[in-house]
Write a structure and sequence with these properties.
Blueprint: E1 4-6, E2 9-17, E3 25-32, E4 39-48, H1 51-57, E5 67-68, E6 72-80, E7 92-95, E8 98-99, H2 106-109, E9 120-121, E10 133-137, E11 141-143, H3 156-167, E12 177-181, H4 185-196, E13 200-205, H5 210-218, E14 222-225, E15 237-242, H6 247-256, E16 257-265, H7 277-282, E17 286-289, H8 295-306, E18 316-320, H9 325-334, E19 339-342
C-alpha cells in the first residue's frame, strides 16, 4: 500500500470498521494527522492482529465507528504536535493502547490506566494501527532499543500484557513447577516469562495446536497435549496460568494446581463458563489475573526482549500487506499460526 506524506500528514489505505454489528469492515483511503497538542504521528512498521480485532470484526466488541482497527504496533515518530519535544522525531517506538483515560480516578493514579472506567482504546474508540500511520499521545510511547528489531517490536504489547500480570507482583519463584494452558501468543509469552523467573514450565495445548506447540518446543519449552496422562498432572503444579480462555483448560488448571497454589487467569472466554469455585476454597488457592498492558508491563517487556529472556521472532507466522486482510484474518481465526502482522508501509 502506498502512502503520501506532507507536513505531518500521512495518507494511504486503512482497515476501517464502518458501523456497529458484524462485518461492515473494509479498506478505504484515510488521512492521518497532523498531530494535535501532546500527540505524535507514528509511521507504522508493523501491526499485530489480536483476538480482540476478530471480536471487533464480528461486532462483539464495543467500538465507535467509523474507526481504523488495530492496536498492537511499532513504528517511527515522524512528526510531533504542539507541546511535544522534536527530539521524539525519528524515535523507534511502541505505544500503549489506552487513550483518553481521565488521570484522576484511583486506577489512573495507581498507574493502571488500563482499568480506568473512562478509558478509550486505539483501534476501537480512536483510529488505530491498521493504516500507514497513527496518532497517539506522547505519554503512551516507549522507546524501542536498537537490540530489538522494529517489526518484532509489534509483539511487545501482548508481551507487556503477560509481563504485567506475572511480574507485578512476581508470581513465579525459582524452582516452581508451572503449567501454562493455551499455546497462543500470550501462552508462549507467559511460559517464557515463567521460565525466566526460574520456573520449571510445561506448556499444554490441544491436538489441533500442534504447530503452536512445535514453536514452544523450538523455544526449549516442555510441551504437553491436553487429555493425555492428565492423572499424572493432578496437584503437581505450584502455579497454573490459563491462557486458552476455554472452560476445559480452566478445569485442567484447577485440577493440576497444588493446594495453596496460585491460579492465574489470562485467557478471555468468549462467553460465561462454569468454574468449580469450590476448588478455590478447598485448595486454599490464590487467584489473580490481568487486563491489558500497563506502563510497567511495557517496561518489563522491553527489558525481557532486549536481554534475550523472551524471544519474539519465532511467534511471527506471517507478514502481510493490508490488501491481504481477509486472508490473514481467516488464518488467524483458524489458528493456522501464532502471530500475523500487517506491514502497511513496506
Amino acid at each position: 500500500m502506498s502512502s503520501q506524506r506532507d507536513h505531518g500528514i500521512v495518507s494511504g489505505f486503512g482497515l476501517v470498521k464502518h458501523a456497529q454489528g458484524a462485518g461492515s469492515v473494509g479498506l478505504q483511503q484515510v488521512q492521518v494527522g497532523p498531530p494535535g497538542s501532546g500527540q505524535v504521528l507514528v509511521e507504522i512498521a508493523a501491526a499485530g492482529i489480536c483476538g480482540t480485532d476478530l471480536h471487533i470484526i464480528d461486532g462483539e466488541w464495543p467500538v465507535r465507528p467509523p474507526v481504523t482497527v488495530g492496536h498492537e504496533l511499532s513504528g517511527t515518530v515522524k512528526a510531533t504536535g504542539p507541546g511535544v519535544s522534536e527530539e521524539w522525531v525519528g524515535a523507534r517506538v511502541v505505544s500503549e493502547v489506552f487513550y483518553g483515560s481521565d488521570g484522576t480516578c484511583d486506577a489512573c493514579r495507581g498507574g493502571h490506566r488500563n482499568l480506568c472506567p473512562n478509558r478509550q482504546s486505539l483501534g476501537s474508540h480512536v483510529d488505530g494501527a491498521f493504516a500507514p500511520a497513527v496518532l497517539v499521545p506522547v505519554t503512551n510511547l516507549h522507546r524501542v532499543p536498537e537490540s530489538i528489531d522494529l517489526v518484532e517490536a509489534a509483539l511487545l504489547e501482548p508481551l507487556a500484557c503477560a509481563a504485567g500480570a506475572l511480574c507485578d507482583p512476581p508470581i513465579v519463584n525459582p524452582g516452581d513447577r508451572v503449567l501454562v494452558t493455551g499455546p497462543g501468543a500470550i501462552g508462549l509469552f507467559a511460559a517464557q516469562i515463567a521460565r525466566a523467573a526460574g520456573g520449571d514450565v510445561v506448556l499444554s495445548g490441544r491436538e489441533a495446536d500442534g504447530q503452536r506447540l512445535a514453536i514452544g518446543s523450538q523455544l526449549g519449552l516442555t510441551t504437553h497435549v491436553s487429555g493425555r496422562e492428565l492423572t499424572d498432572m493432578i496437584e503437581e503444579f505450584d502455579v497454573v496460568i490459563e491462557c486458552a480462555g476455554a472452560a476445559a483448560a480452566a478445569a485442567t488448571c484447577l485440577a493440576a494446581v497444588k493446594r495453596q497454589g496460585h491460579y492465574v487467569q489470562l485467557g478471555l472466554f468468549s462467553k460465561p463458563v462454569p468454574i468449580d469455585m469450590n476448588a478455590v476454597c478447598l485448595k486454599d488457592l490464590t487467584v489473580t489475573s490481568g487486563f491489558g498492558a500497563t506502563p510497567s508491563g511495557f517496561r518489563r517487556a522491553i527489558r525481557l526482549a532486549a536481554l534475550g529472556k523472551v524471544e519474539l521472532r519465532p511467534l511471527i507466522t506471517r507478514q502481510a500487506s493490508l490488501s491481504e486482510w481477509e486472508d490473514v484474518f481467516a488464518s488467524t481465526r483458524r489458528g493456522d499460526g501464532v502471530k500475523f502482522l500487517f506491514t502497511p508501509t513496506r
